[in-house]
Amino acid sequence: MKSVALLLALAVISAPGLSAAQSADSIKGAVGAPESTGKGRLAGDINFGMIDGDLFTTINLDFSMDLGKIGFGVRVPLRLRLLDEDPQNEEYGGIFRKEDWDEWSDYLKIIKFFRFGHKGDLLYFMVGELWGTDLGHATIVSRYYNNIDLDHFKVGLALDLNTDYGGVETLVNNIFYPTFFGGRAYVRPWSFVDTESYMNNLAVGFTVVSDVKAPYSVEENAVEDGYPRVSQEKAATVLGGDIEFKVLDASWLTLTPYTDLNGILDAGVGYHAGILGVFHIPLVSIDLSARLEYRYFEPDYIPAYFNSYYEIQKFAYPFKDETIHQEVSLPKRQVLDQMGGKNLNGYYAELIFKVNNWFTMGASYDDYDGPYNSNLRIFLDVPALEVFQFGAYYYKHNFEGASEAFSFDDKSLFLVEASYQITSFLYLVGQYWRIWQLVNDPASDDFGSYESVDDWSLGIGASYTF
Q: 205 φ, ψ to 5°?
């Protein structure tokens, strides 16, 4: 069946100061929620909201298609300034927000993405917005998202090749101005003897990933192009070797033990040993995937260094400074040089449960010795109900102890959304979320750092499916 959805929504957004913040939908990718599997979508919405104290109306037009091997998305976001408080801002045509179109790369955001193939296919190619991208076993790059900042669009690239003999995975954050890139090459040694042998389930890989312009220090009271002004840069480079062996590969169950040994140049080394399992019951269409991983690493090593919010954490990463016995935020690369103490033990656990197309729920948690080393991600997606659809997504990073897991502070992000069908083609939609934003008010004590802000929207929509 071919389906096309037409959406017209009116949303009122109340929270001020949302410049240099990520999209609320980026929370979905961070917690590992599944992407939409619809064959096609034509959408439009109009909303009102505050950006840096000014009132805007935003018009979004969105079109995407999934044709199996090929998928693409096109969008046209327009923000029109309705009320301009002091200091006065400059617009295009006297009304369009200048920050949205003041770089030539901003015009490329019209082409949201183009994809050929799927992850794991013989050939996989993705250009545009990179959403939840992994390399290998995700011990170095995990759910990376290249377009956190709404004001600066990056055209990312992922290109993979997978054969019976081996393959490569690659990642570039911005093909026009690459600063963060990486790749993994792997080989199946037994394939040169017999590609049909059970021993060909053995794979050996090597990974290198680097942010060659990682911020090392930033000026205390300066913002440039929507980011803290960087006073010093220092490359953040991670090397890794890995081995995996798929011990069971059946239609209903796959089991893949693996081990990774990674090292951050001029910093620490980390060891990962885990098992990935995928369970499928076709009769009732139940899918269950689980990952359990033991981690042992030196104190100046950070697992999954390039994660969903790396584009924010590279400027401000929280950790406990033992010299002053309190928590501080510094650029992530500088934090590596500040860490010390004994080696750490920890684990990572992930579980995703899907029942038909009725609902999907999942959670992942990692924890290590020492303070501020816990991370939690939870989601529930219920798309199947005809009248009411619901989704909830929660992410918290670098907190201390189970008692802080659900305390809403500057380390917490969440998104709750729902839609209610009024008639066969009319429905109500609503969202409530918390995201991060850069504090760019020079009078604030937190100037140049990131803080969490809450926001909400309500609207009405129309749809037609055929």
A: -130, 160
